[in-house]
Give the backbone structure.
Amino acid sequence: MQKFSLFLILMLNILTANSAYAKDMSTEYIVDKYINSINAKDWSCILDLWVKGQRDTLFYFFNNKQNKEHKLGLFNIKKAHLVASKQIPYEYGKIYIPARYIESFTAPQISYVAVNYEVYREDIYHINGVNYFFIVTVLEGGKRKIALTPLVPVNQIISDGYGFGTTEEKTFDERRIKFVQ
């Protein structure tokens, strides 16, 4: 009986450790960590969250002095706060992401996110207020990593029943359109 109790305790410890590990590797964890890292300007943490090919590109981007000086891309964001996030069925969301690229990865998952930005200069990718886009994660080396963060047709997402239902979301495409050239 004592051996059985010891076995149960050991199994419980293993299961608890595995569930903690799984939580750290979940899409929700990656999404939250990514947005918090943008807000903290923790560029090295951001690099660790991306797949290798994109990580290399981001490394060069973050280390380019002109990108920093001109506040391009993520350098344009003063503050970032995750407002909401929800999983979108991959079969639905895949029509908005490049198939050739994403099919080279394992187990893609799509999160539709609402992120409140304060930016230095509004552009097509970042406007003041809540922004909406996908964060696509995949498995790479047994860990969940970000593969893409594409802009999506928000009004279509809403029409198809996958939106958050907020007034700000309904006006996002209209607010952003002035930056499309």
